[in-house]
Each structure stands twice: as structure tokens, then as C-alpha cells.
Amino acid sequence: MSDDKLILVVDDDPDLVESVSLKLESENFKVQKAYDGVEAWEKIKAEKPDLVVLDVMMPRKNGYELCDELKADDNYKDITVILLTAVADAVTSTSYTHMDGKTTMADDFVPKPIDLDNLMEIVKENLNFS
Amino acid sequence: MTGIQTEEKLSIGGIKFTENIALLSITEPIDKADTAPLFFRFLSENEINIFMLSRVMDEQAIRTDCSISEDDLDNIYKLIFSSPELKERLKVLHGLGAISIYPHKTRMKLLGKILFAFGNRKIPVYNMTSSISSFTFLTDCNRLNKAAEALEENFRLPENHAPFQKLFCIKHVHKQG
Q: DSSP alpha helices (H): ranges in chain A?
């Protein structure tokens, strides 16, 4: 069932990208990888993913900026975005996250350090698999 | 031409720098190797992160190398001054930086070519480690750009790859009171 779902994993920590990708691949998801927000945008335009696992703090374009841009674009606003955040306390709901008074739309979030099983549950839930 | 020919170039996903690293080396006699365990207990008690750790043993001595952030060196120096034995056995090399190359996809050929590229540019490697995705090399901080140039010359990088410097760092800080 997950074979036809493409997930883009975006983080500037290559080890995190690799471990999350391996876990997703073990669940038969197709996986793309990117290491910052700019590269992520390029990958999204090249092949639209069903879901993006997106780190918040990254060089060049951070996760909040990319999430905002995706959700403001009619072509991409239906992509599910799961934020990875080390500032879980700042996340007050699963629909909106807040940072420095700024509101950013995301579909869900996973606090860092990541529990891969928890992430997998959230991914499946958001793709209506569970 | 010093670089690898274009047709032989391996592709890599990116390069990342970590600056301000110090390498600590403890050399102790094999029959009285009690310094390193105490030293690591100190690191643990002071929540000092270790980036890399290696231990080499021969018939006479054990050498333990570990790298930490230079921000933690004040604590280390305090410890050294309080322990004559540690002062004698511990060497500190500061002003270092790490360059990580990813993903390695378990390509040992990549490791050889990286060392070739660094060797051609006479870039010293004080320590190296591998992780699930990366090869990381410890060199002089002021040679990180040169090391990146050597890699750009010898490997195929994505056209619009990420900048080398890490722009964000999260550190756990204990609140007073």
C-alpha cells in the first residue's frame, strides 16, 4: 500500500536523513532526500512528494519558510508537511506551530530527538494508513 | 593535473563543516592505564560531548584520542591543572575542524579517493570516523576551505549544494536557580 507514496526527507544532518530514510524504505515507502530548504524545493518541483518530513532549522531556507511557501502555492499546498523540531515546547498544536510570534502552517510535528517508531506512526496516520 | 579525471569522478551529496574542535590525546603505559577512564568520567559528569573517539594499543602504551568542542576546553584545562598525572599524559591540539562528506553509501572507494584528494593538497588528517551516512575527517580549522576545494576538484557535487558552514547549533543550557 505504501509502495506508491513518495516521501521527501529534509534535514541538514545527513545521519538523520539516512536513518529516517532507511526506516521509511523498510516500510516500502519511496524516499527522496534533501539537505536544506533550497534543495528540497528543487526536489519537490522535480517530483511532487505525498509527504515531506521537514526539519525546522536548516541553512539557506529553513523549514518554516519552506512550509509557508508550500502551503501558499496551489500546486503544492496539498502536500502533507511534518515538521521535525527541537523546540517542541514552542509547538502548541498539530495544525500550527509558533516561532518568534510567527505562525506557520504544518500538518503535524515530531519533536527531536526523533523516535523513529513514533515518526512512522505519524507518517502513516497523516497518509491515512493506520 | 592533480585532480581525478572527470569520467572517474564519484558523486557525493554534500560537504559539511564543524568548526572549533579540539583533539585530546591521552597516552598511558599499558600496565597503568587508569587515566582515560577517570578522564571520561569527568567528561560525562560535565556533559561534554565527544565527536570522535579512537583507542590504539601496542605492547607498551595505550593512546586514546577524543575530540570535543573548543568551548569545553576551559573545563579541561582546569582538570589538567588539578592533576599532575593528567598534565603529563594529556596533549591538547586545538584550532581544528571537521569536514564531513555524505552520503558514503558504504563506498570504500570513496574513502580512498578522499584521502587521495587531501594528500594531493597536503591537508593533514588527525582523525577520521564514519557514521551511517558520512565520512568525517579532522583537520586544521583554517584548512577546511582548502579541503572543500580539493573535494570539489575531485568529486561531482550537486549544482546547488548546501553551504558548508552549519548555521544553527542547539546547545542544552542549564538554567540557574
A: 14-26, 37-46, 63-71, 116-126
For an interface test with B, give the residue of A57, A66, A84, A114 to mutate (most B CBs within 10 A). A57
Q: What is the DSSP letter of B146?
A: H
No. of H helices and E strands in chain A? 4, 7
Residues B132, A19: C-beta atoms closer than 8 Å: yes
Q: Which of B100, B133, B163 sits opposite A18 (nearest CB)?
A: B133
**Least trusted range by pLDDT, from A16-20, A83-87, A125-129:** A83-87
Yes or no: is domain B20-94 CATH 3.40.50.10420?
Answer: no
Of B133, B163, B167, the CB nearest to A14: B133
Look up the CATH number of the domain holding residue A34: 3.40.50.2300
Determine the distance in angstroms separating the CA of B132 from the nearest CA of chain A, rounded to an integer.
6
Q: Does B17 lie at the interface with A, CB-CB under 8 angstroms?
A: no
pLDDT in tens, A16-43: 999 999 999 999 999 999 998 999 999 9
C-alpha cell at A118: 513514533
DSSP letter for B13, please.
S
Q: Which CATH superfamily is domain B6-18+96-156 in?
A: ACT domain (3.30.70.260)
| A-proximal residues of B, 96-125, CB under 8 Å | 100, 102-103
Q: Is the pLDDT of residue A48 over 60?
A: yes
pLDDT tier at A66 (50, 70, 90 boundaries)?
very high
Interchain pair B134, A57: CB under 8 A: no
ipTM score: 0.71
Q: Is A4 left (phi over 0), alpha (psi -120 to 50) or beta?
A: alpha
